[in-house]
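TASK: fixed-backbone design
INPUT:
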């Protein structure tokens, strides 16, 4: 059984180029394992 892959992004929105790369990478990985793309906002109050 394969382990799930989780891609975390913390902070600002991704650029269009970065988003395209992430989508392409996730599409390739889907055949081998489950993939989650998790985007979190940064919390400047607690940094």
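OUTPUT:
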């Amino acid at each position: 059984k394969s382990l799930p892959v989780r891609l975390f992004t913390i902070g600002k929105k991704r650029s269009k180029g970065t988003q395209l790369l992430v989508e392409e990478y996730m599409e390739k990985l889907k055949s081998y394992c489950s993939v989650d793309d998790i985007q979190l906002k940064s919390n400047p109050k607690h940094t």
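COMMENT: The mean pLDDT is 88.
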